[in-house]
Design brief:
Elements (H helix, E strand, L loop, with lengths): L2 H37 L4 H31 L4 H12 L1
GO molecular function: lipid binding; proton-transporting ATP synthase activity, rotational mechanism
Keywords: ATP synthesis, Cell inner membrane, Cell membrane, CF(0), Hydrogen ion transport, Ion transport, Lipid-binding, Membrane, Transmembrane, Transmembrane helix, Transport
Pfam families: ATP-synt_C
């Protein structure tokens, strides 16, 4: 398997793990917020505001995973080293 194939595979696995964690975290946050509003409807404004801030923090994990995956795919700092190594091995 080539270096670039490994980069694509690593980026795909990294993005999958990042979004899986984000989805689970957001689901648990919304579940807790809905339970809190059902117990105390008067505090729904504060609960929803806190939930939205929490969801933004949770979503940042997926954004960071996406940025790292894009760096791996398009701006890989090891690309030149891998190409030189491949040329050396081919000789």
């Amino acid at each position: 398997m080539s270096f670039f194939s490994m980069c694509v595979l690593g980026a795909a696995i990294g993005m999958a793990i990042g979004t899986l964690g984000t989805g689970i975290g957001q689901g648990l946050a919304v579940k807790s917020a809905v339970e809190g509003v059902s117990r105390n409807p008067g505090a729904s404004g504060k609960i929803m505001t806190t939930m939205m801030i929490g969801l933004a923090m949770i979503e940042s994990l997926a954004i960071y995973a996406l940025v790292i995956c894009l760096i791996i795919l398009f701006a890989n700092p090891y690309k030149d080293i891998a190409l030189k190594l491949a040329e050396t091995v081919a000789k």
